[in-house]
Each structure stands twice: as C-alpha cells, then as structure tokens.
C-alpha cells in the first residue's frame, strides 16, 4: 500500500469517527478539526514510515476547515495540485522527493570523481550538480536526468549554454554502463533497487556515490563526512 493511499484511508476514517462524535455531542467545527487531527496523528504513528506524515495529518483538517471558511475557488486547489505534481512528481513514481545538494557536498563529491571521468546525476533536480561541475571541474563530462517537470525545466534553462547532458525521464531507466561515476541523492526507499541496477549495468571499477542514504546490508567502501548542519555524508561503493 502506498503512503498516499494510507494517508487517504487514515484521514477518511478519522473524519468519519469525528463526524459521528460531533453529531452526538453537538460540537462546533473547530472541535471536529481537532479531533480529526488527533485521530489521524494516532494512525500516522502506527502506519506511516516518515515522521513528516505526522505533521501533514495534524495540519490537514485545519487547512480543510480554512478552505471552507474562506470559500476558496476550487480552481486554486487544482492549481496547487498541478504545481505539486510538477515539483514533486518523483515522489509518486519512485518515492524520491526533491533534494538539492549543497556546496559542501559538491566539494566532497568532486574529491571522489577521477580526472576526465563521465558522471551521471540521477534525479538531478534543477541541475545544481551539473552546473557546479561545469564551472569547477570542466574536465568531467556530466549528464543529468530528472523526472519532475518544473525542476527539469529550470535545469534546462540553467544549463542551456553548457555542454552538460540534460534529460527528462525516469532515473531508473537510464543506462548506467556509460558512466564512471553515478551520483544519487534520492531517498531510503529506492536504494536497494539502485544497487541491483548498478551491479547489473555499471562497469567494474566505476563508482556509485549516494548523498546521505545507505544501501541496506551493503556497507560502503568509504564514507565522507560533508560537515554541514544536517550531518550529511557521501557513501561510496566501488563496483
């Protein structure tokens, strides 16, 4: 069951239970929202993986109440949905949100990339990694692939006058055999799938580098601390 479907089921059950209690005790709408938030929070604690779902469950009934109170045009909801899909489409496909690599991470990454290598950034966001390498490591040939439309469009504009390769598509459809280094800043969910794909496609001696996220049961060859406020690390596997 997907996390989005769990969210819908938990919210629906919480709303039905809260509506029943409100009808019995004649509570106002605010009490309904509070009750829905508490019930759905309990559901999130038991059935959701990420902690961020708890905050979404807590906020959702109050946002819904505000929407009814201010009589917001439904077209605004449609616009917000389309905007979220354009930015976070990768979450629905591979459970990969939009993460952007910071300058410290890029400096540490550059230390791991051999001279003259060919590098692929999987889930390349707005092209931050590629733009940095074009400017600081012109000896490296860089390509990137991004699924979400708005980040991809921003990356295309950003990299328009560079030699970086920039594609729209599913990161897991890319051919990894062409690259000396594959860099991924994804999420915990697809890392096992990425490792299986890397073992099948990447050449012996090539490097798979993950920002922050481990591959379950596969210790990295080395770990490079980035030194940022998040305590991020680069994890390096040699194929």
UniProtKB/TrEMBL annotation:
Q: What EC number is given for this enzyme? A: 2.1.1.222, 2.1.1.64
SUPFAM superfamilies referenced in this protein's UniProt entry, alphabetically: S-adenosyl-L-methionine-dependent methyltransferases
Q: Which CDD domains match?
A: AdoMet_MTases (cd02440)
Top-level EC class? transferase
Q: Which GO terms describe its molecular function?
A: 2-polyprenyl-6-hydroxyphenol methylase activity; 3-demethylubiquinol 3-O-methyltransferase activity
Q: Is the Disulfide bond keyword given for this protein?
A: no
Biological process (GO) annotations held by this record are: methylation
The UniProt record lists the keyword Transmembrane helix: yes
Show the stretches that span the lipid bilayer. 7-23, 29-45, 52-69, 75-92
Q: What name does UniProt use for this protein?
A: Class I SAM-dependent methyltransferase
Name its species: Iodobacter arcticus
Q: What is the lineage of its organism?
A: Bacteria, Pseudomonadati, Pseudomonadota, Betaproteobacteria, Neisseriales
